[in-house]
Amino acid sequence: MDGDVRAGLGHLDSTSDRAVFRQIADQLRDAIGRGRLSEGEQLPSEAQLIDHYGVARMTVRNAIQVLQAEGLVVAEHGRGVFVRPRPPVRRLAADRFARRLREEGKAAFIAEAEQAGSTPAVDNIVIREERPSPDIAARLNIKGKVLARHRRCLLDGRPVETATSFIPLEIARGTPITDPNPGPGGIYARLEELGYHLGHFEEEVRARMPDPDEAKVLLLAPGVPVFHLIRTAYDTDDQPLEVCDTVMATDAYILSYRLPAR
Amino acid sequence: MDGDVRAGLGHLDSTSDRAVFRQIADQLRDAIGRGRLSEGEQLPSEAQLIDHYGVARMTVRNAIQVLQAEGLVVAEHGRGVFVRPRPPVRRLAADRFARRLREEGKAAFIAEAEQAGSTPAVDNIVIREERPSPDIAARLNIKGKVLARHRRCLLDGRPVETATSFIPLEIARGTPITDPNPGPGGIYARLEELGYHLGHFEEEVRARMPDPDEAKVLLLAPGVPVFHLIRTAYDTDDQPLEVCDTVMATDAYILSYRLPAR
DNA sequence: CAGTGGTCTAGACCACTGC
DNA sequence: CAGTGGTCTAGACCACTGT
Lengths: 262, 262
Known about the structure:
2 copies of one chain form a homodimer.
Chain A: H1 20-33, H2 46-53, H3 57-69, E1 73-76, E2 80-83, E3 90-92, H4 99-103, H5 108-115, E4 120-130, H6 134-140, E5 146-155, E6 158-168, H7 169-172, H8 186-193, E7 198-208, H9 212-217, E8 226-235, E9 240-249, E10 253-260
Parallel strand pairs in A: 3-10
Antiparallel strand pairs in A: 1-2, 4-5, 5-6, 6-9, 7-8, 8-9
Helix pairs in contact in A: 1-3, 2-3
Chain A binds a DNA duplex (19 and 19 nucleotides) through residues 19-21, 45-47, 55-59, 61-62, 64, 75-81.
């Protein structure tokens, strides 16, 4: 026995040309993958790993940092390093903007959350007139100003997405769409009441690492990417009515879509 | 003047409680964001940053590592650190599995690539019978074995995705689906020839950091997440015919979907 | 308080790139 | 060859957590 630091970690292969910190990362990753270290469980402390492997502290820290960048572990100052718990994941259905939901008086985010038994919340609401970016202007096919509706959405107290809707000011001005709470069914319901008939949505999905602001607002752990969605709502004449720019925590969502076979 | 290391980097705020390496990362990130350092351009070397800020090497390296984890820069051993070039992005259309493409004799990946003016390629093809994972078995609603068709797809020489299709062995056995090259239109065309009528597809989209194997096969830079798609093909009776598990480089793709409004 | 991770220094040697 | 980043050591001091 060699003071095995639990989890059955092995030895270093000094003949290998693989860097020591990578070998340590490999062994910890393997322990996590095999379930010898399970979700939420604490990894051996830096001091224990230093003893076990007989290396300098930076070597151990480099190993742990590799795992952090992979999203496998989270370090908590003063407490330890833990296998990253997988938060509950919400599956966004392909029909999440179906009219029946609006008719039930639910905005999409609220409806989805309640259907899944979670408690939704919305904060950081900012509504103002803006000159749109060239990209937004092009998507809306307009030259003038827009109404921008920004908010952050939370599930069971955990921030999961920020979103900004852009609506041509010509459409939004003087309507409940300019209110912080636009009423039952959300702004899509208001648009339909105003005589705009929603035809379909187009959604573009990207994924990337968050910038520091996004990581802060969404309380993202290192190694957790974001979805960046840009959704355009079209009326039945294929005229754009709204663009919604959304940044979502990828550890909180699975996006689901239905594709036609013809 | 203080040997300004190009790019107009500023000074450290010693009164700030923000860590020095984060301040350095902030300044470099800002320089990139403002275009003072543009795509592909080389950052000041570690030695230059050490001189400029008067800090230890590890401090500078920590700063650069922050930017790497954000996907903003790539380090090349012996050459320097460079603002990560944005590779050309392929937009995957919502109708990419439309029948007309199969009838034109193109598999989806090939059709998409050629339509966009790129040169597609496929390698690492492995086809074999397997006992499916519980998840795959459940999606296919079967108990028996599957035919697994694995491949890696490249655009203009750059690997962009790996994919594995799972087809119930009962369906695939003794058909061209078991061939490395299943013929024009891909396996979906073969399925239809066999009398299965494709009705629709359901696609689940996740994003996460790659594991080391995925990073290697897709030549992913640090800080580049992957899309993980699981697509199920259904026939017109809503019976599953195939499941395709795909891992894609997120810096190579924008996924595009059409959502119904009712 | 002891134990944890966070930051930083000052060096060393190595491996890769390009002239 | 000089210049670059990659790895590693051996320390120091700090900040946070929990007892």
